[in-house]
Write a structure and sequence with these properties.
The complex is a heterodimer of chains A (113) and B (113). Helices cover 0% and strands 51% of the residues of chain A. In chain A, a hairpin with a 5-residue loop joins strand 4 (31-37) and strand 5. Chain A has strands at 5-7, 10-13, 19-24, 31-37, 43-50, 53-57, 64-68, 74-78, 87-94, 103-104, 108-112. Helix content of chain B is 0%, strand content 54%. In chain B, strands 2, 4, 5, 9, 10 and 11 form a six-stranded mixed β-sheet that branches. In chain B, strands 1-3-8-7-6 form a five-stranded antiparallel β-sheet, with no helix packed on it. In chain B, strand 7 (62-67) and strand 8 form a beta hairpin. Chain B is globular and about 45 Å long. The N and C termini of chain B lie far apart (38 Å). Classes of the chains: A mainly beta (113), B mainly beta (113). Chain A binds chain B through residues 4, 6, 31, 33, 35, 40-45, 48, 55-56, 58, 90, 92, 94, 97-107, and chain B through 2, 4, 6, 32, 34, 36, 41-46, 49, 89, 91, 93, 98-106.
């Protein structure tokens, strides 16, 4: 069974640009979660999508947005990139609800220069 | 406000000895706790979990203890092996239907051969 896949593995962008990160969940999983792991910090919750709808978002500015497609894959968009957006972005998936934990992908390392 | 805290950023243990990783939380409404392990360049992988109705859960070499009155949980690894060297995150969830896990900042465990 394929795990959660994220692309690209690494992404380098210039301040002010937009970044798009992609995630494919495990087959059968309908919930997708996005987390940010900045240097020295734990995993900070960004967004939760389920059945194509945004269900919850963390304490991040509106320039962090995303969507979930009919096939349950998801996209995270970060607009007007700032240097402090440099981080590892992790996607996770679960069956609807995720009440017993998620399965994470390997992440996208975003570097803003 | 960090609701889940892992106050030890790193821990070194001799192979074969016990590793004890600690986690404190502030929200008494947390009802489910998990431990994840993360190797470099990989996503976190689920290790073990515990519900707030229990005070201990065991899975092979891994045991998680929960002390609700102290708002403290710990992960014991016995015996520790060099392959256990990784960053360990504890996470907690609130029974609000958000299925949003709040993660600690992680403890880097190094098991010395």
């Amino acid at each position: 069974e394929a795990g959660v896949t994220q692309s690209p593995t690494h992404l380098i962008k210039t301040r002010g640009q937009q970044a798009t990160l992609r995630c494919s969940p495990i087959s059968g999983h309908t919930s997708v979660y996005w987390y940010q792991q900045a240097l020295g910090l734990g995993l900070q919750f960004l967004l939760w999508y389920d059945e194509g709808e945004e269900r919850n978002r963390g304490n991040f500015p509106p320039r962090f947005s995303g969507r979930q497609f009919p096939n349950y894959s998801s996209e995270l968009n970060v607009n007007a990139l700032e240097l402090e957006d440099s981080a590892l972005y992790l996607c996770a998936s679960s069956p609807t609800g995720g009440s017993y934990g998620y399965t994470f992908g390997s992440g996208t390392r975003l570097t803003v220069v | 406000d960090q609701q889940v805290k892992q106050n030890s950023p790193s821990l070194s243990v001799q192979e074969g000895r016990i590793s004890i990783l600690n986690c404190d939380y502030t929200n008494s409404m947390f009802d489910y706790f998990l431990w994840y392990k993360k190797y470099p360049a990989e996503g976190p992988t689920f290790l073990i979990s515990i519900s707030s109705i229990k005070d201990k859960n065991e899975d092979g070499r891994f045991t998680v203890f929960l002390n609700k009155s102290a708002k403290h949980l710990s992960l014991h690894i016995v015996p520790s092996q060099p392959g256990d060297s990784a960053v360990y995150f504890c996470a907690a969830s609130v029974p609000s239907g958000t299925y949003k896990y709040i993660f600690g900042t992680g403890t880097r465990l190094k098991v010395l051969a």
